[in-house]
Amino acid sequence: MRITLFDIQAMKRDGKRIAMLTAYDTPSAALAERAGIPILLVGDSLGMTVQGHDTTLPVTLDDMIRHAGAVVRGTGRAMIVADLPFLTYATESDAIHSARRMMQEAGVQALKLEGGASLAPIVRRLTELGVPVMGHLGLTPQAQHTLGLRVQARQAAAARRLMDDALALQDAGAFAIVLELVPAPLAATLAQRLQIPVIGIGAGAGCDGQVQVWHDILGLLPGKSPRHAKRFAEIGTAIEAALRDYAAEVESGAFPTAAQSAGMDPAELAHALN
Ligand code: KIV
Ligand code: NA
């Protein structure tokens, strides 16, 4: 049995903080599940982390379905949430079509959609149809060309709008909300006011949970991680060192040895040669 939205909401009621992490493929999803992470997000951040784009905007529904299916196949217990990508849920009928494909073809348990009060009717409809929806407010990267990439809702009017958006999503049936890059005191207030879990990224310690990007916390991308990310390991450096060793051993002839090779009866080889 997989973790459900009821388990996640019970964690908030019980005061247990919720750890969520992105995953994009089968083996990493399996590792995250073994580490006990209850929610894995197949984020459209895969546009940057695995596809080499600068933004999430080029990611397609087919891309998301392919990666989400891989994550589902690597897990049996974690709740798998997938982003619907840019402009695949702008109308109710698009949202239903995209949700059907993601749930049926990839087999995820829930979807994440970026947007506030104006998205609420779509959230309500999907929820009525049996699709659990996670909201996403604050910095919503699919809108980066209109919002920018900076901390959101620092001023009173925008903070009030964010609170209204969050309440509208909760009323529409969203089972949780991701809050990205908003001031910590505002996020903490929202987490207190909402019944549903508020999962922060760059939103401070007062949220009900945290979400991070796999590559950011494991040191897998060249250069600095974002400010909100802590590097829990330097896997990129470890990989590079291992690969240098591999290349050096191929070049020196130290790899492979008999241990990595198959032998053959010399008589069989001799027979083959005449
Ligand atoms: O795509 C993603 O990884 C996300 C998280 C950063 C919340 O949406
Ligand atoms: Na995303």
TrEMBL record:
Region forming the signal peptide: none
Keyword Secreted: no
EC number: 2.1.2.11
Sites where the protein binds Mg(2+): 44, 83, 114
Top-level class of the enzyme under EC nomenclature: transferase
Recorded metabolic or biological pathway in which this protein acts: Cofactor biosynthesis; (R)-pantothenate biosynthesis; (R)-pantoate from 3-methyl-2-oxobutanoate: step 1/2
Reaction(s) this enzyme catalyzes, per UniProt: (6R)-5,10-methylene-5,6,7,8-tetrahydrofolate + 3-methyl-2-oxobutanoate + H2O = 2-dehydropantoate + (6S)-5,6,7,8-tetrahydrofolate
Pfam families: Pantoate_transf (PF02548)
Active-site annotation: 180 (proton acceptor)
Cofactor binding note of this UniProt entry: Binds 1 Mg(2+) ion per subunit.
GO molecular-function term, one example from the UniProt record: 3-methyl-2-oxobutanoate hydroxymethyltransferase activity
Cofactors: Mg(2+)
Broad class of where this protein is predominantly found: cytoplasm
Keyword set, alphabetical order: Cytoplasm, Magnesium, Metal-binding, Pantothenate biosynthesis, Transferase
UniProt-annotated binding residues for 3-methyl-2-oxobutanoate: 44-45, 83, 112
Localization of this protein: Cytoplasm
Record keyword Hydrolase present: no
SUBUNIT field: Homodecamer; pentamer of dimers.
HAMAP family in the cross-refs: PanB
Its biological purpose: Catalyzes the reversible reaction in which hydroxymethyl group from 5,10-methylenetetrahydrofolate is transferred onto alpha-ketoisovalerate to form ketopantoate.
Family label: Belongs to the PanB family.
Annotated protein name in UniProt: 3-methyl-2-oxobutanoate hydroxymethyltransferase
Organism: Nguyenibacter vanlangensis
